[in-house]
């Protein structure tokens, strides 16, 4: 693991954990071979990272930064970057200016009677930013250590059985059906003048039933269609259904001779059929 | 931690790959210095197969090697993972169904007359495939047109015990009681 | 033939899917008339998990549902299946991702402020292309800057079921006045 390409996004995290790495043993006079230095400097993620490195390398208390010394070191690195013509982000210079400003404010005598001196420590804002940055620097590497798909864990899959495409049929509710019907009727009324009346559904149902029975049996005695247990209303319904079917030419009534039993037969058979039509 | 059993490693590799792996490829998941013999891999595969028996996955040998696959018996369930979202029926379908339900038995021509537009055969096919309508007979008229009626499945789907339970138009006309009274008992006048 | 046990059906569905499935999606593999309750599915998942113990696969709950996955211990073997090394991400990418994860929703400007450097659009593009972050809205401030948040895919990818499972942020050395408590909902315990 060496020589990450500069600026490459997905570069290995090579020297990133600077502490403990060989580079951490930089001579105090900052001399390192230019090639190595280049790599070294490019591992910093910005001025906060560089500053944090300087502080941590010397085990300094982040809450009590010796600002003059740190500024001197920081400037030395920045100058080196300039000399090496590394692409120096403007932020490094902004930080340099900020350090210089803090340094100068530290040199000014503080008004003794000022309120809380803590609050007026010119370093406070810098300390806050350094600590916040350090937190997320750490969080970034924690994130990297989480088990990750395709590196540490692998989604399990197996070949699916051969599949028939399934489609789930649309759902309908009764109210929708009724609404659709109402709409049709309303529209139909606009076209024609004849009044569509409220229907006796039981008749309609009996019509369908009768057709179905005839489908299987071709001929049915009229009496077979009447069911005593349905009572008078049932008989009426059946008769009405048969009359409707006759009217719609869906069935015919046949009779072999006068007073013989009446038979119903399916309209489908009529063309071949014979017999007395009542 | 001790090293996992060879069949577990093979299980893991086959699941992670999600495709058939040859015995050579399976051998190659072990470090060079601990690469098992072909024979050993095959025996471990056999143990794996046994351990998977009666589970939702099975080990199969196919042309390019071994693969884990979901047995055919699970196809009906697995297929539902990819089924399309239920769509809605078009107004044309609903209207046609409603007309058939309330005016059955009815020919296609009569449906068209009521709706005032031609009926696409797609609509009738949709309703027939759904099992809600069927041809109930043929009318003795030129062309012997089929007449359509609703089915028992239709009633079941809408939780009706008979067509009589279909709501009447009165119910939408005035928001009265849910099912005021249906018109069976005294079917005074039918037809149009 | 009798119907397979529910846990086997779930096992089959999860393997055939090869991706996390929500409980709702798992319910939907059953036919409408036999769809189990959520609770029943969860219990069957528990039985499945138990039956898989000590095998080369585990059931894990991640953000978008349940997933069968090869556990970490098998990574050394499984990784040998592929020549390519898994992608590594630069510190810049990881830090940016961490800031978004812990401080979401957050603007680009705020990320830059924390990191102390300008954010290359390449980084944001990488994170968006991976599907780990998305624009969650716009701040009502001059320029209406976009605010970024992490996605469910991000959690799935890092084996997390919610943001709460993220490792806790490093303790700040001393109770500084500036950041009394960090804003992760319940930073109880990190990772696994």
Strand and helix map with partners:
The complex is a heterotrimer, with one copy of chain A (278 residues) and two copies of chain B (192 residues).
Chain A: H1 34-42, H2 47-57, H3 67-83, H4 90-107, H5 124-145, E1 154-155, H6 174-191, H7 201-217, E2 219-221, H8 222-225, H9 231-247, E3 251-255, E4 262-266, E5 276-277
Antiparallel strand pairs in A: 2-4, 3-4, 3-5
Chain B: H1 6-17, H2 23-27, H3 38-52, E1 58-62, E2 65-69, H4 75-79, H5 91-103, E3 106-107, H6 108-115, H7 121-129, E4 133-138, E5 146-150, H8 152-157, H9 170-173
Antiparallel strand pairs in B: 1-2, 3-5, 4-5
Number of domains as seen in the coordinates of chain B: 2
Write down the CATH topology of the largest domain in chain B: Arc Repressor Mutant, subunit A
Tell me the Rg of chain B in angstroms: 31 Å
Biggest pleated sheet of chain B = 3 strands, antiparallel
Average of the residue pLDDT scores of chain B: 85
Between the first and last Cα atoms of chain A, what is the distance in angstroms? 104 Å
End-to-end gap of chain B: 85 Å
Number of strands of chain A: 5
Strand proportion of chain B, as a percent range, falls in: 5-15%
Description:
The complex is a heterotrimer, with 1 copy of chain A (278 residues) and 2 copies of chain B (192 residues). Chain A is α+β, with helices and mostly antiparallel strands and 278 residues long. Chain A is 48% helix and 6% strand. In chain A, a hairpin with a 6-residue loop joins strand 3 and strand 4. In chain A, helix 2 packs across helix 5 (124-145), helix 3 (67-83) runs antiparallel to helix 4 (90-107) and helix 7 packs across helix 9 (231-247). The longest helix of chain A has 22 residues, at 124-145. In chain A, 29% of the residues are buried. Chain B folds into 2 domains: 6-79, Orthogonal Bundle (Arc Repressor Mutant, subunit A); 91-169, Winged helix-like DNA-binding domain superfamily/Winged helix DNA-binding domain (Arc Repressor Mutant, subunit A). In chain B, 40% of the residues lie in helices and 12% in strands. Chain B contains 9 helices and 5 strands. In chain B, the strands form 2 sheets. Chain B has a 3-stranded antiparallel beta sheet. At the A-B interface, strand 1, helix 6, helix 7 and helix 9 of A face helix 1, strand 2, helix 4, helix 5 and strand 4 of B. Strand 1 of chain A pairs antiparallel with strand 2 (65-70) of chain C.
């Amino acid at each position: 693991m060496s020589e990450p390409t500069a600026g490459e996004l997905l570069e290995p995290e090579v020297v990133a954990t600077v502490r403990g790495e060989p580079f951490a043993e930089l001579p105090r006079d900052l001399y390192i071979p230019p090639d190595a230095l280049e790599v070294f400097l490019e591992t910093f993620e910005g001025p906060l990272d560089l500053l944090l490195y300087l502080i941590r390398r010397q085990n300094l208390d982040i809450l009590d930064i010796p600002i003059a010394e740190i500024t001197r070191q920081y400037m030395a690195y920045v100058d080196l970057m300039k000399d090496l013509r590394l692409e120096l982000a403007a932020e490094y210079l902004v930080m340099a200016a900020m350090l210089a400003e803090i340094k100068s404010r530290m040199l000014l005598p503080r008004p003794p009677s000022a309120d809380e001196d803590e609050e007026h420590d010119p370093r406070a804002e810098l300390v806050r930013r350094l600590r916040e940055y350090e937190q997320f620097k750490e969080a970034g590497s924690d994130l990297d250590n989480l088990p990750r798909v395709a590196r540490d864990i692998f989604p399990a899959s197996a070949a699916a059985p051969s599949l028939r495409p399934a489609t789930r049929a649309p759902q309908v509710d009764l109210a929708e059906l009724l609404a659709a019907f109402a709409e049709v009727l309303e529209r139909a009324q606009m076209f024609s003048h004849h009044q569509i009346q409220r229907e006796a559904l039981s008749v309609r149902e009996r019509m369908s039933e009768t057709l179905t029975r005839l489908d299987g049996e071709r001929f049915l005695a009229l009496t077979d269609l009447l069911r005593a247990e349905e009572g008078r209303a049932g008989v009426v319904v059946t008769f009405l259904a048969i009359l409707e079917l006759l009217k719609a030419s869906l069935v015919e009534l046949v009779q072999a001779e006068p007073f013989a039993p009446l038979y119903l037969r399916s309209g489908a058979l009529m063309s071949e059929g014979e017999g007395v039509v009542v | 931690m001790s090293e996992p059993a060879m069949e577990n490693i093979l299980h893991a590799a086959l699941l992670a790959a999600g495709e058939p792996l040859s015995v050579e490829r399976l051998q190659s998941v072990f470090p060079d210095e601990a690469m098992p013999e072909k024979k050993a891999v095959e025996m471990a595969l056999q143990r794996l197969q046994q351990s998977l028996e009666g589970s939702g996955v099975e080990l199969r040998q196919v042309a390019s090697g071994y693969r884990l696959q979901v047995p055919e018996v699970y196809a009906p369930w697995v297929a539902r993972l990819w089924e399309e979202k239920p769509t809605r029926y078009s107004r044309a379908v609903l209207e046609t169904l409603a007309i058939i339900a309330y005016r059955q038995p009815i020919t296609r021509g009569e449906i068209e007359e009521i709706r005032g537009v031609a009926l696409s055969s797609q609509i009738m096919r949709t309703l027939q495939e759904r099992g809600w309508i069927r041809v109930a007979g043929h009318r003795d008229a030129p062309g012997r047109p089929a007449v359509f009626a609703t089915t028992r499945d239709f009633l079941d789907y809408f939780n009706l015990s008979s067509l009589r339970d279909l709501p009447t138009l009165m119910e939408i006309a005035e928001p009265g009681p849910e099912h005021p009274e249906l018109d069976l008992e005294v079917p005074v006048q039918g037809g149009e």
